[in-house]
Amino acid sequence: MLGTHDLPLFTATVFVLNATPGVDMMLVLASTLKRGVRAGLMTSLGVAAGCVVHTLLAAFGMAALLATSAAAFSVLKLAGAAYLVWLAIGMFREAARGATDAADATESPAGPRADASTESAHATGWPAFRRGVLTNALNPKVALFFLALLPQFIDADAPHKTLAFLFLGAWVIVQGFVFLAAFVLLVAPLRRWSPSRRLRSLLHAVGGSLFVLLAARLAWPERN
Prior knowledge:
This protein has eight helices and no strands. It is an all-alpha fold. It has one domain. The chain is globular and about 50 Å long.
């Protein structure tokens, strides 16, 4: 009804994005390991709030143009494909670097817990939320990713492109927060755990492969 399509693929893509270690995930991890569950959840909520900003900018800043210009829609999709390839290359580099590090070094057992004493007690509430908002909302890569990812799951002739953007953006926000909240609950009891280099390498490789496939799907015109 909203003109969206391939929602299972969209869900899988968002999951890989959530599960791939990045700035937001590392921030949530550090907050959780330093200050516990409340700080981790508040940081996760802040990240979700930052995604609201990106969703609104994508929906109201781009939908009007896309609704009136099929050419602009095509150009944006091709630009999105190029950006996804660029992301994939970076992720493959990270995967290769992680594989090398895993072979040459041993993980420190202390992990992010080592500097826990530097975090003040009040950082489990509003400051943790604010840090999550600013880290996400001011990250230009997140804004570019929203613009690259969402349009490819919206039909060119969708009747309500603004609603389609908002719907997919809300999907990203909810799924992302659920993932981060589950991640917080998983790592909080451990307190000394951090993702291994091999795990980070694998996730980057999987994410890079998925982004290449999505870019190819964007660049290759559908044939009726």
